[in-house]
Structures are given as C-alpha cells and as structure tokens.
Write a structure and sequence with these properties.
The protein is of the alpha/beta class and 217 residues long. The chain is 36% helix and 26% strand. The strands form 2 sheets. A 5-stranded parallel sheet has the order 6-7-8-3-9, sandwiched between helices. Strands 2-1-4-5 form a 4-stranded antiparallel sheet, with no helix packed on it. It binds adenosine-5'-diphosphate. The site of adenosine-5'-diphosphate has 10 residues, from helix 1.
Length: 217
C-alpha cells in the first residue's frame, strides 16, 4: 500500500480572532498536498482571506499551528517566516497589492530579487509571464496606470515567477473577463501539475467545479 503524500501545508486546530469578542476560526484544521488545486469557499466575511494570511504566515494563529513541510511555524521569528514566504509561496491578493511607485516589471521582479534570484534570468522569465498573461505593457508603465484586471494578472506573474511550491490566491479571477479568467485558471492548474499546492479563494461556482476539492468555511 502506498503511503499518503506528505502535506506541504497544514493548519492544525487553528483559532484566530482580530477582536477578542469575535472569534473567526475555532479549532480549524486543513491539509494541503502537492499537486492539489483546492477551492476555499464560504460567505463574505467568514474569514477566507484571513485563512490565506494564516496559511501564508502573514498572521499568527491565536491558538494552534500552521505547519510547512511538517515544520511548525508558530514560534518561528518573523525573519524566518518572511524568508519562508519569499522562498516557497506565491501570493495573489484581491487588491493585487502592487507598489504604484515602481514599474510593472519591478513589481513582478520584487520577490525574486528579495530572494536573491539571478537578475537576468528573472527578468527574462518575467517578460515571458507578462506576455503570456497579456500584460506585456511598456517597461515604464506603473500599476496606477493599469486596470484592476491587469493588476491582478501582474500580481499573478509576480506570484509565479519563482515557480512556488505553494500558491495562495484570493479571488484571482474576480476582476477578469471570461477569457482572462480562463488564462489565469489554466496557469494555476499548471502550477499544481508542476507539483505545487494551490489554494484559491473564489465565489465562482464554475471555477470551484474545476478544482480538485472544495473546502467550505
Ligand atoms: P472573507 O475573505 O471570507 O470575506 P475576511 O477574512 O476578509 O473574510 O474577514 C473576516 C472578518 O474579519 C470580517 O468580518 C472582517 O471585517 C474582519 N477583519 C478582516 N481583517 C480585519 C482586521 N485587520 N482587523 C479587524 N477585523 C478584520
């Protein structure tokens, strides 16, 4: 009998609250494996984005653990958590979180250069990704000059640049037309096929139906 694959990412009995009186997660557990594309769904305000922040080591649970490759992360210093984020995660946030003072290309390159990746190779790959996602804009274009849908695809380029083992995407097709949505979904599916664990918060039933499983909050 084959052994079950080791989880890339685990939430173990996680509790979380922003305000003392309003617990958002209570004793919540979930496991994510290599090669999986998982949809996280639930009503607005239920805590879906918060779950991505917890899984992505941006917030610390008030109780419980987040394990990365089986290693508990709760008590690790911020510096180490940040290094793990840069090395292993690709994030696509709802508001795209682009720096409007820098060019589109610099935004895409930001995490790779922080990580210490080769600059020339990263630039080459960044151009390839921008081309593929239909956002190969002028090199000096700035995020303030692009549409919401373009910003989302630029954020996806940044997320995929380092070939991340974990992708956390918050409504990655939220602002996109059907054709662009398809391009984004295909890219996430391919990243899973390359062995990544891909977690997607979405309200889109068509997209949920094409994920490997749905995790309802
Ligand atoms: P979802 O993604 O499911 O819509 P969120 O994770 O964004 O839910 O938010 C869950 C709840 O936590 C909401 O009620 C929201 O208002 C609240 N919340 C989100 N961020 C913060 C914060 N930084 N401080 C306090 N409350 C917050």
């Amino acid at each position: 009998m084959s052994r079950p694959p080791r989880a890339v990412l685990c939430a173990e009995r996680v509790s979380f609250r922003y305000e003392p009186a309003t617990p958002l997660l209570d004793d919540w557990s979930a496991t994510f494996h290599r090669g999986e594309l998982v949809a996280v769904t639930g009503p607005s305000g239920r805590g879906k984005s918060t779950v991505l922040y917890l899984l992505g080591l941006m917030l610390r649970p008030t109780a419980g653990e987040v394990l990365l490759d089986g290693e508990p992360m709760q008590s690790r210093p911020d510096r180490e958590r940040a290094a793990h984020r840069a090395a292993r995660f690709g994030f696509v946030f709802q508001d795209a979180a682009l720096d409007t003072t820098r060019t589109v290309l610099d935004n895409v390159l930001e995490t790779a250069l922080y990580r210490g990746d080769d600059r020339r190779r990263s630039r080459h790959r960044a151009h390839e990704l921008l081309e593929r996602f239909g956002v190969a804009l002028r090199a000096d274009a700035r995020p303030g000059q692009v549409s919401g849908g373009q910003a989302q695809r630029i954020a996806l380029c940044r997320a995929l640049l380092g070939d991340p083992r974990i992708v956390l995407a918050d409504e990655p097709t939220g602002n996109l037309d059907p054709a662009s949505s398809e391009v984004v979904f295909t890219a996430l599916r391919e990243q899973a096929a390359r062995g990544a664990a891909v977690v997607v918060v979405t309200h889109d039933p068509a997209l949920v139906g094409r994920c490997d499983r749905e995790l309802v909050l």
